[in-house]
Amino acid sequence: MPLFDRLPAGIHLPTLALTLALGTAGGFVARALHLPLAMLLGSLLAVAAAALAGLRPLGRLPQCPNGLRFFFVPVIGVAIGGSFTPQIVMEAQLWWPSLLALGLFIPIAHLSGYRALRATGRLDPVTAFFGTAPGGLTETVLMGEEMGADVPMLTMLQFMRLILTIILVPLGFLLVTGQVVGSAGGAAMARAQAHGGADWGWILGAAALGLALGKVSRLPAGIITGPIVVSAAVHLAGLTTAIPPQWAIMATQIVIGTSLGVRFVRMPPGQFWLALRLASVNVGIFIALAAAFAFALADFVHEPVVAVFLAFAPGGLTEMALIALSLQMSVIYVTAHHVLRIVLAVALARAFSGRIGR
């Protein structure tokens, strides 16, 4: 059987390789320019630009199967799990004010975004409601589809929320603090430098077992939360102190950025600009509210304002955790809040979906 016949339907291996090469080149260009979260943002922007321009260097549009993320995202989960220490477990007792505050933040942010997008007159109620849900991309798209939403626009709004947050949050840190987020800033994790065979065995084992755990247990964002749980257990038990090296984190950023960039393939220009404008309004509201909650809660939870803001920012769990990792701050705190955010956002969308449909 030819090699290409064993690939996912529609995937052309040379085009996939070229797409990843373009993403890698974009990442290193962004790194040379000292952009924040360079490998992720650079790969995303390079591939998105090629997708929107309709480039077909091998007769095919840029492509990257979403399943490729399953081989890389667990790397981030293992790195986060390596941050667990008995001291952090004790500090978690202080986080309850901001965890409870998420129960207030989610409905305020969702309702505010929904009202703002409905006021534009460009969206029906169902599409606006599920398009402004601050978490649970797959779940909200499926629920919206069941209720008759405009699925292409709903999907674009949810992806735009993630992508705009990924772009705006690191740039905001650069503008406000002057601190570059990500590999361009030279962030390095202390335990990521040297590994023996046993260390690699624990790292790979935690990634594989965690991925299986996330799938079987249906944990929120199980592709990353499963490896977090297993890695935390391994590190708390003292079986290893190693975490994935920096090159593995950078490779993961490139794959994530490339897989997001190909989402712009075949996107109609008119729909793209409309979705961008609407999502910008929605993300602006979310970020402003996240900043307000961060300043109000930081003293109560004994965490920096920046960490609380990252915990409430409406990006993906993986991407926000990457920013926290690169800043070497409160990655467990940020991750715990994003897991809860996903659960609350999906629960709220499901609870009020009937009323919106009526």
Helix-strand layout with pairing:
Elements: H1 13-32, H2 38-53, H3 73-81, H4 86-91, H5 96-119, H6 125-131, H7 137-146, H8 151-177, H9 197-217, H10 222-236, H11 246-261, H12 269-301, H13 305-312, H14 317-327, H15 331-357
Describe the model.
The chain has 358 residues and is mainly α. The chain has one domain (75-182, 189-244, 268-357). The protein has helices spanning 13-32, 38-53, 73-81, 86-91, 96-119, 125-131, 137-146, 151-177, 197-217, 222-236, 246-261, 269-301, 305-312, 317-327, 331-357. Helix 9 crosses helix 10 (222-236) and helix 12 (269-301) packs across helix 13. It is globular. It starts with 12 loop residues before the first helix and ends with a helix. Residues 1-7 and 183-194 have low confidence and may be disordered.
